[in-house]
Amino acid sequence: MSDAYSRPVPGHVPVLRLGDVLLVTLQGDLHDSTAQQLQQDLAETISRTGVHGVLIDISGVEIVDSFLGRVLAEIAAQAKLLAARTVVAGMRPAVAITLAELGLTLPGLTTALSTEAGMELLSQQTPAYRPRGPRQESP
Amino acid sequence: MPEHEADGQLATPTHEVRDFLHRRREQIAQRWADEPLFRTVFTVSRDEAVEASKVVVDALAQVADSEQVEDPDAAGFSGVREQLARMGAARSRAGLSNTQVASELAALRPPVENLLASDLEDAPPEHLRACSTALTVLMGTLRLVAMQTALSEWQALSDRQRLQLMEVATPVIRLWDGVVAVPLIGTLDSARSQVVMETLLNAVVDQHARFAILDITGVPTVDSLVAQHLMKTVAAARLMGAQCIVSGIRPAIAQTIVHLGLDLDVITRASLADALGYALHELGTDIVNPGAGQR
Amino acid sequence: MHTAAGVEACLPIRSDMDLVWVRQHVRQAAARLGFGLVEQTKLVTAASELARNTLVHGGGGQMEATHLSSGGAQGLRLAFTDEGPGIADLDQALSDGYTSGDGLGMGLSGARRLVHDFDIESTPGDGTTVRVTCWVAQPPRPREEA
């Protein structure tokens, strides 16, 4: 069921289309420019395909610094403007602890434990689970 | 000593002590074997205590030979460190305080000093004084070495116990499919909060838990540092895609948190049971009580 | 008092690519010294923030990594140096949310929270040096085998 959109250009992160969702898998250490390129690619792909969800799997990412954190937050914000929801899935404990310590809680980001859980979230008609605190959905 | 007198000059005090230790090795060992420190540690036979004493005498002689009577790092001591540590540990196990062990070590000195005094009866008084000073210093250094060794043992023991305590004190329990909990008991310090955070988040990954419950019923006080750690744990869990619930906040802790002006932006429940109930409800697994009869 | 057990490496910070090298080098050095996974991640993240500052605000520079040892404890010190415009108001630069570039304003203040020691020297017009130090936690923590 995967009509693919993979673009194995060096320095590019492949964006895969799975039905109504774009799937992005980040791996290892990302160059700043690669991350920025991805942000641009995603905006274009969402608008071209009209998908309603973006799933970013970061289980293979060893560090998220404030730059990558900002890119992720901006991807979510721009996807929202294009009527798509973004879920970031599979953040490692060490990365999450570091971000919390750094003070980057990325309140606008919807998260999931795994790609499966993320897919489930995106496929739900009702709005996904969100903490019942005073958190806002958008940054 | 006859040979010293023969060429009309005396050996240096430390070398005199060395020769004395070699010469009186057997007698010193016999006397030390009756001292509590050796007698109570080497209990198999008196010979064992004598042999152990001889090892220490030999080490002292070697240190005196190298003229390093004031140096606890002298090579001569390295051979007896382990034995001293074992002796110290055995005495501690027998319930003696550090001070008592230290005074038992000090008790080794008088018998040796008396022997030295009687050996050098005919020597000039200044020489005797110099020699017994050298011996006193040497015995003092031995005590220092023994205490150092014991201290590093205690340090290692206390580190091990702290580690064990942290592991024992932070068990992560799987309450339900997708729900883990850590019941915290006792005072939380920064190091322990860190361990709690890591253990809980690792469990979230291992158990695919969407809900992580931090139960602080057993925590007497929370200061601002600990509250911050709790907040970081909550934030980190959310980044991973799980939700934290804090349960069992005591009235006093709630007051403290408000007084500290902290904004504890987190879901709370009165008890662990309520927290589990909330998590199950969110997971779509409601518990019904069949005993209630009517539905 | 601690002794520097030797400068491990000196890496240039001139481009995007160099940031990746800095991160990889710090990760390996920290792993070699016995840092746990979480501590490694914190240190690498701090290095990434500071190296990006050096690149973006300082116009490039270098990072020097030094292995420290003090009474049995092992540590890693990272020094980031640039000859850029310097920082006029350090207090402001160190406050949360302050940004002169396009980050989230967490660079300096965030990096400071991730390390044990943080020290900054800056002369307007002359450049900036940031030194951070991390020590391997003692006793070594369990369950950080990954």
From TrEMBL, chain A:
Q: What is this protein identified as?
A: Anti-anti-sigma factor
Name the InterPro entries on file: Bact_StressResp_Reg (IPR051932), STAS_dom (IPR002645), STAS_dom_sf (IPR036513)
Identify the residues that the record assigns to the STAS domain, covering every copy.
11-122
CDD domains, per database record: STAS_RsbR_RsbS_like
Coiled-coil boundaries = none
Automatic annotation (TrEMBL), chain B:
Specify the superkingdom: Bacteria
Kindly give the PROSITE patterns that the UniProt entry links to this protein: STAS (PS50801)
Gene3D superfamilies noted in UniProt: STAS domain
InterPro entries in the record: Bact_StressResp_Reg, STAS_dom, STAS_dom_sf
Q: Which UniProt keywords apply?
A: Phosphoprotein
According to the entry, every stretch annotated as the STAS domain falls at 169-283
Instruction: Specify whether Iron is a keyword of the entry.
Output: no
Q: Does the keyword Phosphoprotein apply?
A: yes
Q: What is this protein called in UniProt?
A: STAS domain-containing protein
Ranked from the top, the taxonomy reads:
Bacteria, Bacillati, Actinomycetota, Actinomycetes, Kitasatosporales
TrEMBL record, chain C:
Residue ranges of the TM segments? none
Task: Report the leader peptide range.
Answer: none
Which domain of life does the UniProt lineage start with? Answer: Bacteria
InterPro entries tied to this protein:
HATPase_C_sf, HATPase_dom
SMART domains in the record: HATPase_c (SM00387)
Domain Histidine kinase/HSP90-like ATPase: where? 38-138
Pfam families given for it? Answer: HATPase_c
Question: What's this protein's name?
Answer: Anti-sigma regulatory factor
